[in-house]
Amino acid sequence: MPLNSYSTSIVPTLARALSEKGYTDLTPVQSAVIEADADGRDLLVSAQTGSGKTVAFGLAIAPTLLEEAEIFGKAELPLALVVAPTRELALQVCREIEWLYAPAGAKVVSCVGGMEMRVERRALNFGAHIVVGTPGRLRDHLERGSLDASQLKCVVLDEADEMLDLGFREDLEFILDAAPSERRTLMFSATVAKPIADLAKRFQNNALRISTVSEREQHVDIDYKALRIAPNDKENAIINALRFYEAGAALVFCSTRETVKRMSARLLNRGFSTVALSGELSQNERTHALQALRDGRAKVCVATDVAARGIDLPNLDLVIHADLPTNKETLLHRSGRTGRAGRKGTCVLLVPHNRRRQAERLLGSAGITASWEVPPSATDILQRDRERLLADPAWDAEADETVREFADALMASKTADQIALAYARLYRDGQPAPEELLDVAPFQDEPARPAREEMQNGVWFRMNVGRKHNAEPRWLLPLICRRGHVTKKEIGSIRIQENETLFEMEPRMVDRFLTAIAKPDEEDSSVRIERLAPGETPAPRPGRRERETGAGYKPKSFGPKKFGPKRDGAAARTHTKKPHRGK
Q: Can you tell me the distance from the alpha carbon of 315 to that of 303, in angstroms, rounded to the nearest whole number?
């Protein structure tokens, strides 16, 4: 809706801030919260991620805070409190509120975990109109008496569902109990599940329910792509996706801290300007990483889900799911970092061929239709480079006198062919080289596999593990699939013997399988796989007496791993006595 259509609904000083920021239209949620029926009421709002919720609640509470005035008086006790789930989101909200309320002369103070508490206490003592913070830190200030909530007119809970998911219910209830009962309470959440509804019922008074998007409606500004990859090609596929789409900023989501460290190191080595975000980083390191993305010094951020909750980055045009999300909420949260406030974005899911069903169920549960494709090849990327080079605005830009003199000197000393070749070479050398990827057949073209015992002309392979190593099909089969970039459909009989295991492979997969197993494998480096020599006949299936002999000890490098890497976030906090409170 055009901004001037709401000239009487928006406080004039805030309307001026919007115009100076370049706003010409309001998003649906921003329009909804300033309608006449929302004026002065408690609000329970669910809206799409990236829909401009910060500006929305800033506009909604302005008439209550300023009343008939256009600018604030002297800052004393806080008039509004905004609570956000994470440090990064709270600081981001603080920046948004500062520019929105700057013409109104508002003093905004942040109180977030990881920052110096004495500095925050001093800022509160000097007075504030609006305080933005994380639940744990705000509760600490309330308990210590450095934050006086007696004059609050509005309390805003931003991303309320995430705060409850992170275990902040007790802190939120403490904060809301400390505020005056006649205040306005605004809750913003991606969805209104039962815990949110219960919280609203207890702390809101006749709240107006606002929903600006169906929970099953796909985000129209995000183009979803599911890329079929071989399991061991994940990192190469990420490199090619980053090169092909060449986004102003890209976010790569990984499931564990260890994967974040390895992936960010790989991208740095390949020439990408990369930063990492994970829960083990200090607040100072996380702040510097985000600032590098905002000012363009870095273009790629590799992050875990928890570290990237709620962050909003300019020019974030690409989100890559290096590891498939575990549920639809995580999928939508990750993907919602792009396609924000009317900008278009691309979301890429990397799907190993043995995770196809999981990906399909995930997309279906989230109501998302993705285009199934293969990752960009080296040829695709080089062709895209040529297109970008020829479309570069530099060809039509005006040149100053110094540049023109230099160009004339080049033309006088070099031929046009030499200049073009040098320019193309410099352009190519300034880009990370694309990777060659293994071919993956389209899922729908996979022929049905004959029953294992009926495989015709199967090719036999040997592994150096057997019964004395406690070899079992339940971990041998996944290992073969991962090492060879195949699925269980292409594997026939498996014969576990005393010192080795023999297995059968479909003939059409042999060449690809041999190429894949030739690469070193760090995860199971002790397990060797080789093709049986021509003419070598597999041993007959062992009898019962042979199967019952010699159950020996199992080397540490064999078999399934009992414990996986620690995940960032809630799973890593399961042994703590109480949830982290944003300190």
A: 17
Q: What is the number of domains present in the chain?
A: 3
Is the Cα dihedral 307, 312, 313, 318 positive or negative? Answer: positive
Would you say 200 and 187 are in contact if contact means Cβ atoms under 8 Å apart? yes
Retrieve residue 478's tokens: 């996944």
As a whole-number percent, the residues of the chain with pLDDT over 90 amount to 36
Query: Which helix H or strand E contains 257, and what residues bound it?
Result: helix 257-269
Q: Is the pLDDT of residue 562 over 50?
A: no
Place of tokens 């990984």: 254
Last residue of a domain, one of 180, 211, 242: 211
* Structural tokens at position 75: 């800052």
pLDDT in tens, 377-423: 989 998 988 888 888 888 888 888 888 888 888 888 988 888 888 88
Q: Which residue, chain included where needed, has tokens 């899922």?
A: 443
Q: Is 199 in the same domain as 243?
A: no
CB atoms within 10 A of CB 91: 23
Distance CA 91, CA 75 (A): 20
CA atoms within 13 A on the CB side of 437: 27
Strands (E), 268-405: 274-277, 300-303, 316-321, 345-352, 371-373
| Cα(25)–Cα(19) distance, integer angstroms | 10
Tell me the chain's radius of gyration from C-alpha atoms.
29
Determine contact, residues 287/262, Cβ cutoff 8 Å.
Answer: no
Q: Tokens 């702040």 sit at which residue?
A: 287
Q: Are 216 and 186 in contact (CB under 8 A)?
A: no
Asked if residue 424 is part of any domain, the answer here is: no
Gap between the Cα atoms of 545 and 462, Å rounded: 22
Q: Which residues pair with 156 in a beta bridge?
A: 82, 186
State pTM to two decimals: 0.59
Domain residues for 531? Answer: 447-547
Residue 358 and residue 262 share a domain: yes
Percent of the chain surpassing pLDDT 70: 84
Q: What is the DSSP string of 205-246?
A: SSPEEEE-S-TTS--TTEEEEEEEE-GGGHHHHHHHHHHHH-
Q: What is the DSSP letter of 181?
A: T
Asked if residues 351 and 360 have their Cβ atoms less than 8 Å apart, the reply is no
Q: List for the chain the helix, strand, coil content (%; round to 5).
A: 40, 15, 40
Whole-Å CA distances, 159 to 186, 293, 351: 11, 23, 29
Has residue 570 been placed in a domain? no
Q: Are 147 and 131 in contact (CB under 8 A)?
A: yes
The two three-digit tokens of residue 34, written as one number: 């300033």
Q: Environment class of residue 184 by beta-carbon count within 10 Å: exposed (0-12), middle (13-18) or buried (19+)?
A: buried
